[in-house]
Known about the structure:
By secondary structure, this protein is mainly β. It has one domain: Metal Binding Protein, Guanine Nucleotide Exchange Factor, Chain A (Beta Complex), CATH 2.170.150.70. Helix content is 7%, strand content 44%.
Amino acid sequence: MLTASCHCGAVHIDVPRRPRNLTQCNCSICRRYGTLWAYYKLSEVRVKSVNGTIDEYTWGDKSLRFARCATCGCITHWEPLRLRKDARIGVNARNFDPEAIASIRVRRLDGATTWKYLD
């Protein structure tokens, strides 16, 4: 198991394993957030937080909810608003210990235009 946490420690996210790849997306929100996304099945991930410390942002087609710590402001994850059996969650890998993700391949996603990986 691997745990991600925001800067102040109010939000922790437990995942079952190291991610196989990380995604750096250049869409209008991800490039501003500066995130590296690690993807998991929603059922595999546990988000733990102090009551009231997760703030959410939804925009566009209202299919995703971006979450951040309301105390320190770190983007922690995104999750789908429409739950399906195969739903996945994106965990901001920048909240893992750097050593835990140092050797993982980072893929560049053109989320701004083509929705294709650039590598």
